[in-house]
Amino acid sequence: MKKVEQSELEQKILDQFLSGKNLFGEDGALAPLLKNVLDKALQAEMENHLNESERSSGNKRNGLKTKTVKSSLGNFELEVPQDRNSNFEPEIVKKRQTVLADQLADKIIGLYGLGMSYRDISSHIKEMYDTEVSHSVLSQITDRIIPEIKRWQNRPLESMYCIVWLDAMHYKVKVDGLIKSKALYNVLGVNKNGYKEVLGIYLSESEGANFWLSVLTDLNNRGLQDILIACTDNLKGFSEAILSVFPKTEIQKRVIHQIRNSLKYIASKDKKDFMKDLKEVYRADTKDLAEEALKALEEKWVQKYPLVIESWKNNWEELSTYFQYTKPIRKLIYTTNTVEGYHRQVRKVTKTKDAFPTDMALLKIVYLATMNIQKKWKAPLHNWSLTIQQLYIKFGNRIPLDLELRSGGASPSRTKKSDRV
């Protein structure tokens, strides 16, 4: 390079550097240099591809194809060499790859997992990297996680979970140009070591016992053989579906769901007094005291609200399962704190979307949100060492505890698992 040209290039680099302009972006001083390096690397790959075996089969160079790639350093027009047999697979810039830097793709997927729209992501990438990325390219990039989602959905499970919450969230999804409501089924479990884990995410037209049966069957096919306690809502046929797959499971219908459903049918002027009486039922210290309070509730309110009282009586056995346990376990299984805490964090990410364009678009963002949430679950549930011993007294050898714990040794350590399968 001549001294004059070198001096001009150095000045251009300095000016762009001081002004904060991307040196490798469009009109960047170093962009031609990087393009030249990439073009030469592609040529070298082609030369290596056309070995003696390829040439003997008649394969040879077949011109160049211009390709635009995007990166954190800007956009580049590359000249990709072609071969006659079309079996050349470059490594540095793969076929159909439109984003050069993997770290940019990871950045896009990370932003999508935080609930950002394609428009917002595109603006962010433009501002940060001086690179234009279309919505179609963003969709292609986020689609990279689809195989990962499918592997995760089909991964093997542990043979037993102590407590499993089964619940659904509802979203709007576009189907054939129409907006339809979809039920997103979530299964959250606690293993024998006290660690929470999302066992599966499933999508259906609506919430129903029949679909829950298919969900439970899928969990069983993936290795889950036993659930000690299943926490559910009052969906008709739900308990029968669970027991048909896991016959030894104890069902705990969520009290908060029963309360909410009851209050729908209580007049506003009576709600305060009714709730005062109802608290005596579900906050009682023993099942006997709770049943006395339930009888008093019936005597006072049955004439005015017969359907509500009948519902409590019909569901009582599965609403009162938690009275068998100490207060820490009771709170864990009769409230919805655990599963609703997970739902609340997912909704923080999905609340920006009025409706999702496809089922997979919804699954992608919920899956990414779930992976981010699970990274925070680094410790077992509070007082789990005491909880598991109480569960062992109740359920015995259905809990496959380590020998050290049975003999009074240290608590079993968590088996390390990757956040992404």
Automatic annotation (TrEMBL):
Keywords: DNA recombination, DNA-binding, Transposable element, Transposition. Coiled coil: none annotated. InterPro entries: Transposase_mutator. One of its GO terms (molecular function) is transposase activity. Pfam families: Transposase_mut. The keyword DNA-binding applies. It comes from the Bacteria. GO terms for biological process: DNA transposition. NCBIfam families: transpos_IS256 (NF033543). Required for the transposition of the insertion element. Belongs to the transposase mutator family. This is Mutator family transposase. It comes from Psychroflexus maritimus.
